[in-house]
Amino acid sequence: MKHAxxxxxxxxxxxxxxxxxxxxxxxxxxxxxxxxxxxxxxxQPTQDSKAPYVVNLSVQDNRLIFEMEDxxxxxxxxxxxxxxxxxxxxxxxxxxxxxxxxxxxxxNTSKLEAIDMGRRGLHNEGAELMMERLSDKISMDLETARxxxxxxxxxxxxxxxx
Length: 162
Description:
- By secondary structure, the protein is an alpha+beta fold.
- The chain has helices at 24-39, 87-106, 109-134, 142-160, and strands at residues 9-15, 43-45, 53-60, 63-69, 75-82, 138-140.
- It has one domain.
- 50% of the residues lie in helices and 22% in strands.
- Strands 1-3-4-5 form a 4-stranded mixed β-sheet, with helices on one face.
- It is globular.
């Protein structure tokens, strides 16, 4: 059944480990991912169809925690996802973002395009892994999964990149 609204996510909150926000170079990534998810997302927990949802993301003990409420403010069961399968992707993503920032400051646009293509590839790989690992719990499209993968990286950046 089609929803009257254009997005399945009303709001997303990020709970940073140790209440330490992400470093400045990741804030733009965070802002873009949050806007994308709030403007246009396909997100539906398998046991609920009352969108839009409020999603609270946190990382605890190397696990991603999805806490959700439906449109009627009913709490849904929390989902816990190990971040171990994402370690390499997250590390590579950080390297890409840092390289992108360095090259951008140098003004080398041809290198920017190459780095951005690599980053998009990593992004897609992380999104596909998320969709696969959540397939029996949450239905989402690739763009929504890309946004969530970015937010996982942002949450992981907070304690590791100081």
